[in-house]
Design brief:
1 helix; 47% strand; 12% helix; mainly beta; 9-stranded antiparallel beta sheet
């Protein structure tokens, strides 16, 4: 299953990518049906949903809270700190946020498997 989407943010490290997409084929008043944050582990090649909790912006600084961790970023750097155990992950924003083929393939496969309600 493929679908139209727009990448809004893409942050990468040597071991992971974190990104947000907006589905363009979904009309809903619920942002959870339209916007998705995802975490791609480059070692295992696994893509998983990040469960959005809240967001904050202070000037150029962006913050996102997920059940799985906290993401802070600006135009030049970012940090993802997992909840519980694990070291913080230094990230670099990719501008414009264009998903490479491996991320897009994983994205479509994840949505095919999970079939979110639309």
């Amino acid at each position: 299953m493929t679908f139209p989407y727009r990448p809004l943010f893409l942050l990468e490290s040597a071991t992971a990518s974190i990104f947000e997409i907006k589905r363009l084929d979904v009309q809903s008043a619920n942002p959870g049906d339209v916007y998705f944050w995802l975490y791609f582990d480059r070692t295992s090649r696994q893509l998983s949903h990040l469960t959005f909790v809240s967001m904050n912006a202070d000037g150029d600084e962006q913050q996102r809270e997920f059940a799985q961790g906290r993401l802070q970023f600006n135009a030049s750097e970012g940090t993802y700190t997992p909840t519980g155990t694990g070291p913080a992950l230094a990230l670099r924003p990719v501008l414009p946020p264009t998903l490479p083929a491996e991320l897009e393939t994983a994205l479509f496969a994840l949505f095919r498997e999970t079939r979110p309600s639309v």
